[in-house]
Amino acid sequence: MNILITGASSGFGKAMAIKFASMGHSIMITARRADRVEALAKELRDQYQVTVIPKIVDVRDRAKVFSSLENDPFVAELDVLINNAGLALGRDYFEEASLDDWETMLDTNVKGVMYVTRAVLPSMIKRAKGHIINIGSIAGLEVYEKGNGYCASKHALDALSQSMRIDLLRHGIKVTSIHPGAAETEFSLVRFKGDPQKAASVYDGYIPLYAEDIAEVVSYAVHVPEHVCLNSIEMTCTAQANSFTLYKSIGQAKS
Ligand code: NDP
Ligand code: 8X3
Q1: Domains in the chain, please, with CATH?
Q2: For the residues of 14-26, what is the DSSP string, one character each?
Q3: Residues in the chain with pLDDT < 70?
Q4: Residues with CB under 6 A from ligand 1
């Protein structure tokens, strides 16, 4: 299969790139950090002798997204698009949160998905098949304190996924939402703007999800038979029930 993964320089996207390359699939991997994307592409090509195409794209840059993807020969034969690139910025009360952070999250997590999906859709429609996997979040299913802008972006993404599923039915295109809970990646380091202690404290006292867990579930969703579509998958670590109930054995509530 030809699989395009956004946000492959770290976390879930990188784990998915490794998983799919190890299974022999051809992949296109994208993100903003060129050094990481290019190094990963080389490493996977050397290790698994598969096609790995690196593309340096900021999903917020509408013109660049379209010029990079629209007429690409790999995209012309695309089987699976994984909209994974995304981020949270800040964890503050609504009245204190940064407007710039809100805009960056909405531009990346919502508009970025719209741009990338629209850029690759013509080839899927032409071939009357394809699978779009959107990496949502439990923050897109339930809101939590100080989650405001991030929760809004992931709720919007969930609405988009449901719309795509309905509107693309007539083209034979599947749409799957994956909604993970707390997972230890660079997500919290980004959210807390490079503060390693704050980031690490998110994962203290319990075993969170790891990027490989998400890659495993995405791979399962990709490999179900053609006539089956997993519409929505919510997954958390065993210590988490929903976006505001996390059992930390050291007794500290998620905050
Ligand atoms: P990471 O920070 O480890 O990875 C995020 C990836 O997104 C990076 O590759 C980053 O690449 C890319 N990215 C961010 N902004 C842009 C942009 N503007 N253009 C292109 N790429 C971008 O976090 P995760 O792997 O944890 O996050 C992946 C997805 O999963 C996100 O959508 C996140 O919201 C979601 N999620 C994460 C959870 C968690 O607890 N970790 C739980 C639920 C959902 P680069 O900076 O090089 O551009
Ligand atoms: C990331 C999970 O709970 O930090 O989407 O919002 S959470």
Answers
A1: 2-246 (3.40.50.720)
A2: HHHHHHHHHTT-E
A3: 250-255
A4: 6-13, 31-33, 58-60, 84-87, 108, 112, 135, 137, 180, 182-183, 185-187, 190
